[in-house]
């Protein structure tokens, strides 16, 4: 295991490697993005991390970029060159954008799949638990 020096890092790319994304080619996308960064000598400027599920499975393959706070969907190997071009220019890759942080919260693109609020799920789970306890 390594401990990287992040002092030159300008962006952090989170590559979802959860099960839904893996079924949609996340391993290949991860390897292609990392290879493209290495080919361009950007490894010290753009750091990548594999993650588990990011909670947007209908958007698989999911890629998230910080500090922009940009969430991308349906990423494929064919998108990688243009995606990295956007990273280098510190631009948003609008073709696959689903959400972007506006300084206060994330704003969904009109084409983004509407998700479920966590509070709604928690309320349903809590209600089910109470019903079971009283049965």
Structural overview:
It comes from Ectobacillus funiculus. This is Ferredoxin. With 135 residues, this protein is an alpha+beta fold. The protein has a single domain, classed as Glutaredoxin. The protein contains four helices and six strands, in the order βααβββαββα. A hairpin with a 3-residue loop joins strand 3 (63-66) and strand 4 (70-72). The radius of gyration is 17 Å and the shape is globular. The mean pLDDT is 92.
How are helices and strands ordered from N to C? Answer: EHHEEEHEEH
Structural domain tally: 1
The CA-CA distance between the termini, in Å, is 51 Å
Q: What characterizes the major β-sheet? A: 6 strands, mixed
Radius of gyration (CA) equals 17 Å
CATH superfamily: Glutaredoxin
What is the share of helical residues? 25-40%
Question: Approximately how much beta-strand content do the residues carry?
Answer: 15-25%
Describe this structure in a few short sentences.
With 135 residues, this protein is of the alpha+beta class.
Give a topology summary:
Layout: E1 11-16, H1 19-23, H2 26-39, E2 46-51, E3 63-66, E4 70-72, H3 80-88, E5 97-101, E6 106-108, H4 118-133
Parallel strand pairs: 1-2
Antiparallel strand pairs: 1-3, 3-4, 4-5, 5-6
Keywords:
33% helix; alpha+beta; Ferredoxin; single chain; Thioredoxin-like_sf; Glutaredoxin
């Amino acid at each position: 295991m390594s401990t990287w020096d992040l002092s030159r890092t300008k962006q952090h790319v989170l590559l979802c490697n959860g099960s839904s994304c893996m079924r949609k080619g996340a391993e290949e996308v991860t390897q292609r993005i990392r290879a493209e960064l290495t080919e361009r000598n950007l490894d010290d400027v753009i750091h990548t991390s594999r993650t588990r599920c990011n909670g947007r499975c209908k958007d698989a393959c999911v890629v998230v970029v910080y500090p922009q706070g940009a969430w991308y969907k349906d990423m494929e190997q064919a998108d990688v060159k243009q995606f990295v071009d956007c990273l280098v220019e510190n631009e948003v890759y609008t073709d696959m954008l689903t959400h972007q942080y506006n300084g206060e919260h994330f704003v969904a693109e009109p084409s983004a799949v509407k998700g479920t609020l966590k509070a709604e799920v928690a309320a349903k789970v809590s209600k089910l638990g109470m019903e079971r306890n009283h049965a």
